[in-house]
Amino acid sequence: MSNIHNFEMPEWAQERILARQGKAIVHDDVAPGQTALVVVDMQNYFMDPASGASVPKSREIVGTVNALADALRRAGGTVVWIRTLYTPEAELSIPHFHRILMSPDKYARRCEALQRDAEGSQLWPGLEVKDGDLVVEKTRYSAFVSGASALDQILRARGIGAIWVAGTMTNACCESTARDAMMLNYRTTMVSDANATIRDDEHAAALINFALFFGDVTDSATLTGRLSEQA
Q1: Which of 40, 160, 202, 221 is least surrounded by Cβ atoms within 10 Å, i.e. has the fewest?
Q2: pLDDT for 26-43, tens place per residue?
Q3: Which long-range contacts (CB under 8 A, 24 or more apart) does 220-226 make?
């Protein structure tokens, strides 16, 4: 049995999306050169079965993420690989996340694994990171929330107006990043088959809620097909 999420937008959600915005997809007219693929947290700690914190389905989306990155790169777009890090500064600014929302054992393992130079914080070796891609560090779930990273400034300097969000976990760092991107006026798409989390129902709930209120949800084949049409 495949570990890849089996997702289809339910009819009731499609009806509500159409009622709000008039069509199912509204970000299909952005030029590739103004688009960035933001790949969230595809790191050893979150992917290696030996880490104790891996998301098994995340290993199944690596090929999809690589193919989507290659297609956007070839079309003139930007590929960004996000790394979550533990830093003492982040712990001081959001101590409840580290000390209240995690058990002491979980806290200790996570902080050690996500040090900047630790093996756990490195990008998964199966990812095809190319020259010209960006690697951006973050210290919170969302890469766009204040204090998390320099991603917003980096993308704006490049004239990026739209982002595609991929990575893990769908309903944590990916969804948080996508929601905040929309609130910062990026035209945001979550890629349904290039995101992964623990359970299918968690994955579906995050994507449905995002599509209802925040932006587009579509699959990688649709996005790569769009790039071909725009060429």
Answers
A1: 221
A2: 999 999 999 999 999 999
A3: 220/64, 220/67, 220/68, 220/191, 220/193, 220/194, 222/25, 223/68, 223/71, 223/72, 223/164, 223/189, 223/191, 224/67, 224/68, 224/71, 226/28
